[in-house]
6-carboxy-5,6,7,8-tetrahydropterin synthase (Algibacter mikhailovii), 151 residues
Amino acid sequence: MGNNIRITKQFSFETGHALYGYDGKCKNVHGHSYKLSVTVIGKPITDNTNVKFGMVIDFGDLKKIVKEEIVNVFDHATVFNKNTPHVELAKELQDRGHNVLLVDYQPTSEMMVLDFAKKISKRLPDHIKLHSLKLQETDSSFAEWFDYDNI
């Protein structure tokens, strides 16, 4: 029997975006109160001299990684796909002092969660693996990423 445990921490942030070329209302600049659940998997530390004894990862350490990589970057920013004419709108907003984020993908929940998975994974300690992410854009709509879907 293994001793793998999944640990989840939840985050929230406010982000604006627009989907260039989309055929619905979301082609207009709008925002969401995103909720992000980050689940990592690993074995609790068995060394009783370690200050993190009994933990898979300190929730505070996980929080620091996700805040630095995702929340502090995306919160109260407006995200645009830089490979579209939205780059002109982004420049105008930046010139007026707005917090704009240019990404090289269409900023859907699906593509954001892929981006987040890469960024969080590379910051985790060696003995911890990113298990899954859930990005909720509304109460009833979310995108999920699972490690075992991407092996």
Q: What stands out?
A: The chain has a mean pLDDT of 95.
